[in-house]
Amino acid sequence: MPGKLYGVSVGPGDPELITIKARKRIEASNTIAYPVRAPGEESTALNIVKGAVDLSGKRIEEIQFEMNPDPLVRESNYQDAIKKIARLLDEGDVSMINLGDATVFSTYMHISLDISKLGYETETIPGVTSFCSGAAEAGIPLVIDDEGLVIVPYAKESNQLFKALRDFDNIVVMKAFNSMKSLEFMMNEFNISKDKAVVLSNIGMADQYVGDFDTEKKYGYFTTVIIKKKGKGK
Description:
Layout: E1 4-9, H1 20-28, E2 31-36, H2 44-50, E3 59-64, H3 71-89, E4 94-98, H4 107-117, E5 121-125, H5 130-138, E6 149-153, H6 160-167, E7 170-174, H7 180-189, E8 197-201, E9 209-211, E10 223-228
Parallel strand pairs: 1-4, 1-5, 2-3, 2-4, 6-7
Antiparallel strand pairs: 7-10, 8-9, 8-10
């Protein structure tokens, strides 16, 4: 019988935020797979797991998803990754670990669909997102009463963020680490002051930052901004 692919969410950074279900699944798996952009690249997700689960005796496999500007190269690399995962599944169950929650801007969800098309069974195990954990750290609600919430990535070629800032009370802007000045410019267009925003950078990690929106500060790669147009409530 072929194995089953598990997309295991491991939370934003703190090993204590791994769910009991995720920990049990990793402990029960012989093979742990994790995504990388280049061979030998350090994995934040794997480091989180190492802080919560004894991986002694387990097979650890990196799955490369190259961020090449050429779409044909990216697609070829992706198909190679799918073939590798399928080979691993032919030998038994595979737990593919994912930072945060696997359903939020995760490569795993593409993998899950394509692996399913090949006839393999898949299951997604949810986890804590960086913006939920960060909001708790900041002591602010993501939404309250009858407010709305939208989650968008910062993308220069998209008008999604423009619409979000225009139409919603609460906006979670992900992938914002090197876009603070342009984000501030967009906020100014809607008269949203910087004191309505909280920056969440590398949540649950050693260099975590939860604080004011400062365009001069350098932030880590895993940076999210929560904008609350009605105020942070603190």
